[in-house]
Amino acid sequence: MKVFTDITSLQNFLLPKRRQGLQVGLVPTMGALHQGHLSLIRQAKSENDLTVCSIYINPTQFNNAGDLEKYPRTLELDLALLSTQGCEVVFAPTDHTMYVGNQLIRLDFGYLTQIMEGRYRQGHFSGVGLVVAKLLNIIKPNRAYFGQKDIQQFFIIRQLVRELAFDVELTCHPTVREPSGLAMSSRNQRLSESEREKAVGLFQALALCESALKNGESWKMAHQRAVEWIETEGGIRLEYLELADGDTLEILTEWNQNKQAVLCIAAFVGEVRLIDNVILF
Ligand code: AMP
Asked: Which residues, judged by CB distance below 6 Å to any ligand atom, belong to the binding site of ligand 1?
């Protein structure tokens, strides 16, 4: 496994491979890898000749300095895990490599930045868009892989790729969960044992909403039922629970059973902010 920290040597390695016609898959991550990341790596490996995993904690997507500071950093472990998966290339740049010189560009994704994550995390998606655009330009992959767990991020990246005509195929990979139902996340490392048990409540609240809707309840009723359940359980501070259109992510006030929709949740468990979602068919 080759590990690069600078752009030129990475590109010097990739260019001849691309000229030979080898297909390159990219899995962008912020490290602290878990089985969710590894399943993206496995999919990338099965569909490409060469898989590049980037590990970079992108400061411009953190709207909260404390969150950035406490984000888990486990590079040595990550590299060991990636080599067990047969990942061929790792790109682990420094901030200086990614953000050289005066950075003036800010990205605005319209309504996509005004709802859910965008509403609660000012500037977050501009940072996500910038770093993904940089990675796509640097690595020029044929395919790039993202997780459904961060579904709004996927919509942002899809918009970026469509509007700026990046020549890359995107994949949204299903969320990998713990046996309890808890969505795997690097941030779970910051949860205590009892908080980890509480955190399953995000998925349980989504499941409760889903079955209420599928039983014919209105969104208002389903939402209220889930909020009351969260309050009775305790230990979770809800930020939002929204029903969104499966094609556009626009916020819905009612579920049309003939159309795909997404139930999205964000909540604090202790000091840790977690998100999750389920797709309704
Ligand atoms: P992160 O390191 O958290 O920025 O995540 C890197 C990529 O892995 C993103 O595209 C995430 O959506 C994806 N990812 C994170 N957690 C999971 C999970 N539990 N299942 C599938 N993909 C995930």
From this structure: 29-30, 36-37, 40, 146-147, 149-150, 173, 175-176, 183-186
Average pLDDT, the chain: 97
Query: Distance (Å, rounded) from C-alpha 165 to C-alpha 162?
Result: 5
Please write the tens of the pLDDT for every residue from 250-272.
999 999 999 999 999 999 999 99
The answer to whether residues 108 and 122 touch, using CB atoms and an 8 Å cutoff, is no
Instruction: Give the residue-averaged pLDDT of 213-224.
Output: 97
In this prediction, residue 70 has a pLDDT band, given cuts at 50, 70 and 90, of very high
Q: Which pLDDT score is estimated for 165?
A: 98
Ligand 1, atom 13, lies closest to the CA of: 147
Look up 173 and say whether it is catalytic.
no
Span from the CA of 149 to the centroid of ligand 1 (angstroms): 6
Instruction: For residue 279, give the nearest of 248, 241, 246, 238 by alpha carbon.
Output: 246
